[in-house]
Amino acid sequence: MPSAFIILAALSWGFISIFTKKLTSYGFTEMEIVTIRVVYALILLFPLTFIQKKQAMFKIKLKHLPFFVGTGLLSIVFFNWCYFTAINQLSVSLAVMLLYTSPAFVAILSYFILKEKLSLKKFFAIIVTITGCTLIAISSSGGATSWNWSGFIIGLGAGLGYALYSIFGKLALKHYDSMTITFYTFLVATVSLAPFFHFWRKMSGFTIENHLYMIGLATVPTVLAYLLYTIGLNKVESSTAAILATMEPVAAILVGIILFKEDIVILQFIGILFILSSVFILSIKRKTKGDLSKRISKEC
């Protein structure tokens, strides 16, 4: 089931706090952690890509390079910069809420760029998803949030950057498979970040445990998550995939409750139910006349 790949990717993204909290305690800044994420992911992807299809998998046409600039630079790098900046200028909860405006951005961009239909069911699922994320955000801050216009606009930029992976990924899938797309996405991101954020200068005296957390960050919420998400995009519309990916905050909250002993309030629980409901709405398929006739013929 293609939707399952999207949901598994979202759940994998939801585990990112396990690794980021630990790496932050080691003294890394937010953008250094992002750089660790993409550099280590590229290191992991190189042998995987080479083994699967050897050198043929590294070949792309120059005219398709904009697709990977889109997924690597405009999506991953731009999204992370906007997200962390919004967290610094606004409350974390409001930044998360603005990040999850991405399904709305994807639905609109898909309509104009990918010519996907914006059905009533999809539109309703977007509203339900945003409502759920809003409830989680409000409850996380006790209803009090800091505010400034620059932070708000940059926060919306995080939602846009998050959405752009679905758009550029869908365009790239017309020419390349998921492994190639993921590899070049992180290659572009690494080239864009590594010259400016020298995280390795802080690695003197690191133990095996330190390195395992860095590798874990690159494996679970990065390589695995993006591969699953890109595979899912093969069969799922970009706008639908973006909505299904909002299972991530659900996973993140569960990780917080189970591992970090964070409390959950009633509004957060209701918000989780809203997000789960949007996934259920998208899973409902309308029976067509053709489907009905096939069922009748089988029964006869």
UniProtKB/TrEMBL annotation:
Q: Where in the cell is it found?
A: Endomembrane system
Question: What are the protein's UniProt keywords?
Answer: Membrane, Transmembrane, Transmembrane helix
Q: Family, per the entry?
A: Belongs to the EamA transporter family.
TM ranges are 33-52, 64-86, 92-114, 123-143, 149-169, 181-200, 212-229, 241-260, 266-284
- The EamA domain is annotated at 5-137, 150-283
State the annotated membrane topology for this chain: Multi-pass membrane protein
Membrane among the record's keywords? yes
Q: Which GO terms describe its cellular component?
A: membrane
Major location category of this protein: membrane
The keyword Transmembrane appears for this protein: yes
Database matches in InterPro entries: EamA_dom, EmrE-like
Q: What is this protein called?
A: EamA family transporter
Task: Identify the Pfam families for this entry.
Answer: EamA
Its taxonomic path starts at: Bacteria, Bacillati, Bacillota, Bacilli, Bacillales
